[in-house]
């Protein structure tokens, strides 16, 4: 049995994590849940959206799955996601992006993976005001962080029968910081010649992903570019509502839906739980419960291909509950 820390989150988080639990349990997964609350609602009680006991739970259990949490824009507390990644050294943000047959999208043959460095770059949180005149953010790029994220990308490619790794950068302009990333990627590529390697400037990557996404396989990049391009890639296959994510470090892993907390539809039973369910699939594979993961994957694929019971964001009319029940009915 695996004990997993479950963080329901804010907004639609409790709804989609509840749906995920039902699906995981229906697949016969050997999981015991340890619920730990984090998010905006914890501010009044603890003075922080991420109480220490939540981090302690993850450290004890080694694996967590969370629903979306609210991050204030331009004010308020720091992102819980950033805090978790930095405090647990979850240096990999892994986001598989794959087309589903039956889902309406612009492309039918997308199957790529974004590997995003998760702990530094402009998201390191090193910024300060310059009086009333302006503000300055520091883009921190280090060789050890570059090396381990690119090594992870090549290891992932080899373990998952992927053929190519593409390093994404802006080294033509940021010659020192992104130059360090690119040079390190090339060094790691020299040690992994059984996997094809190339590199791509980030603005060209954005254009080419829209033109020919089927040409890309594993793409590795610094933090900011990964945040932007992973959302772009989600749009290629139907949106953030179906895309899973994982934050992985040496000792811990936190799986999560990549969409927001959508407070405007909270409590209406219309949220799409697919991203959370797919994140659980990634989690089950990480835990070695592959058979259960494949049951869920196959059930989702069948529901999407039939195209009858879909949530509103996917062009259907089903409630969260109806969609969840349909997925469970297809688990064999």
Description:
The protein is of the alpha/beta class. It has two domains: 1-98 and 239-332, Isopropylmalate Dehydrogenase (3-Layer(aba) Sandwich); 106-236, Isopropylmalate Dehydrogenase (3-Layer(aba) Sandwich), CATH 3.40.718. The protein has helices at residues 13-26, 43-46, 52-61, 80-87, 143-159, 177-190, 202-211, 223-236, 274-286, 290-306, 320-329, and strands spanning 2-7, 31-35, 63-66, 92-98, 111-117, 127-130, 134-137, 164-169, 196-201, 218-221, 244-248, 253-257. The strands form two sheets. A ten-stranded mixed β-sheet has the order 2-1-3-12-11-4-5-10-8-9, sandwiched between helices. Strands 6-7 form a two-stranded antiparallel ribbon. Helix 5 crosses helix 6 (177-190) and helix 7 (202-211) runs parallel beside helix 8 (223-236). It comes from Inconstantimicrobium porci. This is Isocitrate dehydrogenase (NAD(+)). GO terms for molecular function: isocitrate dehydrogenase (NAD+) activity; magnesium ion binding; NAD binding.
- Kindly report the name of the CATH homologous superfamily of the largest domain: Isopropylmalate Dehydrogenase
Assign a percent range to the helix content: 25-40%
In total, how many beta strands?
Answer: 12
SS strand fraction: 15-25%
Unreliable runs: none
Based on Cα principal axes, name the global outline: globular
Number of helices: 11
Radius of gyration: 20 Å
Structural class: alpha/beta
Order of strands in the sheet with most strands: 2-1-3-12-11-4-5-10-8-9
Keywords: Magnesium, Metal-binding, NAD, Oxidoreductase, Transit peptide
Enzyme class: oxidoreductase
Cofactor: Mn(2+); Mg(2+)
Organism: Inconstantimicrobium porci
């Amino acid at each position: 049995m695996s004990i997993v820390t479950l963080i329901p989150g804010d907004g639609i988080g409790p709804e989609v994590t509840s749906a995920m639990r039902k699906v995981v349990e229906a697949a016969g997964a050997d999981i015991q849940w340890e619920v730990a609350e984090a998010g905006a609602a914890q501010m009044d009680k603890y003075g922080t959206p991420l109480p220490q006991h939540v981090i302690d739970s993850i450290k004890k259990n080694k694996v967590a799955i969370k629903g979306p949490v609210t991050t204030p824009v331009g004010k308020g507390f720091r992102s819980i996601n950033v805090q978790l990644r930095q405090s647990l050294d979850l240096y990999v943000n892994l986001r598989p992006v794959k087309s589903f047959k039956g889902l309406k999208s612009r492309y039918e043959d997308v199957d790529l993976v974004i590997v995003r460095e998760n702990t530094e770059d402009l998201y390191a949180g090193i910024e300060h005001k310059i009086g009333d005149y302006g503000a300055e953010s520091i883009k921190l790029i280090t060789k050890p962080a570059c090396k381990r994220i690119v090594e992870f990308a090549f290891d992932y490619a080899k373990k998952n029968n992927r053929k190519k790794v593409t390093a994404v950068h802006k080294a033509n302009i940021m010659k020192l910081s992104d130059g360090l990333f690119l040079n390190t990627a090339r060094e790691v590529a020299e040690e992994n010649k059984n996997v094809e390697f190339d590199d791509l400037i980030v603005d060209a990557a954005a254009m080419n992903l829209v033109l020919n996404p089927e040409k890309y396989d594993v793409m590795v990049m610094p933090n900011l570019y990964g945040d932007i391009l992973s959302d772009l890639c989600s749009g290629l296959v139907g949106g953030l509502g179906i895309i899973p994510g994982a934050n992985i470090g040496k000792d811990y892993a936190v799986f999560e839906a990549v969409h927001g907390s959508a407070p405007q539809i909270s409590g209406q039973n219309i949220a799409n739980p697919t991203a959370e369910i797919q994140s659980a699939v990634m989690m089950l594979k990480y835990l070695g419960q592959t058979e259960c993961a494949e049951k869920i994957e196959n059930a989702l694929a069948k529901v999407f291909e039939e195209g009858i019971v879909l949530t509103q964001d996917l062009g259907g009319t089903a409630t969260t509950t109806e969609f969840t029940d349909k997925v469970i009915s297809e688990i064999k």
